[in-house]
Specification:
By secondary structure, the chain is α+β, with helices and mostly antiparallel strands. Helices cover 31% and strands 33% of the residues.
């Protein structure tokens, strides 16, 4: 319980939580892929394609000489063999790339080079995701929300999702390869990410809680509810909450309807850490704001 003057001094602000229906989601974990193997493969294919182009031109010139009786058929057969060998090498490298990268491999040379340049510059990142053991994806998710530890407020939306060509050797799960263009911050190879994959089905009812309202204390997450406002004082109640899914931008966190909160509750959204400090002052405790 605080005197109104004290609540004003602490700059406490309140708001009602927003109702939100969220599509069913599946949690998965992954890492940013090192693009070096793809870059090396692109260079190898480009070199093979250049060799094939040169041998084809040489074979065409030989055929013209054979037609004018300035070269023998044996010479034409030799040039054809060289061209065929170069063609087989290019096709072999492309098949190998398809096996390794699936739909992520661009066969068109210009598109492949542009894709490689974007990966090298960091304007694009590829992420390998693997669901937890026991979680099976029956359909390909259409959207995902990515979160990096320490940057939970900057979730990364992604809609470019393709199945991986290999399974995780440890969990035996069927992985996914996500492509993120223009990430809000650099995604370095090896960075660990958490993803929430959007699945088909009926939306789950719940509430959106601002991040500024969330407190972390004593190994749990809490919020403050304003219980009553009288003439000279205001009563607050600290209660635990279970964070379900981080939301994009300033929406904060999704809390399921089963958590007990409603849109009629009044939540402290600014100054919650100061309120906790007042509560714990006698015990000398400390609060950690989310």
């Amino acid at each position: 319980t605080l005197e109104k003057e004290q609540a004003t001094a602490l700059s406490l602000q309140t708001a009602r939580p927003s109702r939100l229906d969220l599509q069913p989601q599946l949690e998965a974990f992954g890492r940013v892929i090192d693009p070096s193997p793809l870059v090396a493969l692109d260079s190898e294919i480009a070199a093979a394609e250049a060799a094939r182009s040169a041998s084809k031109s040489a074979h065409d010139r030989t055929l013209a000489l054979v037609a004018s009786h300035d070269a023998s058929l044996q010479t034409a057969e030799t040039s054809l063999a060289l061209f065929s060998a170069d063609q087989i090498k290019v096709e072999s490298l492309i098949r190998s790339a398809r096996l390794q990268w699936g739909a992520r491999f661009e066969e068109d040379p210009k598109a492949r080079r542009l894709n490689t340049d974007q990966l090298v510059s960091g304007h694009t990142a590829l992420i390998r995701l693997d669901p937890l053991p026991g979680d099976t994806l029956t359909v390909l998710p259409k959207r995902a929300s990515l979160s990096l530890a320490g940057r939970e407020a900057q979730t990364i939306p992604c809609s470019d999702i393709q199945p991986a060509t290999t399974t995780n050797p440890k969990t035996q799960s069927e992985g996914l390869i996500l492509r993120v263009d223009q990430p809000p911050f650099p995604l370095r190879p090896g960075m660990a990410l958490t993803a929430w994959l959007e699945l088909p089905g009926s939306p789950r009812p719940g509430l959106a809680i601002p991040r500024s309202a969330i407190l972390r204390h004593d190994g749990r997450t809490w919020i403050y509810l304003q219980e009553a406002e009288e003439k000279h004082e205001i009563k607050y109640h600290r209660r635990p909450v279970t964070l379900d899914t981080p939301l994009d931008g300033d929406q904060g966190w999704f809390i399921t309807a089963g958590d007990g909160l409603t849109t009629e509750n009044i939540i402290v959204i600014t100054g919650a850490s100061s309120l906790l400090s007042e509560e714990l002052k006698a015990q000398g405790g400390a609060a950690e704001i989310d």
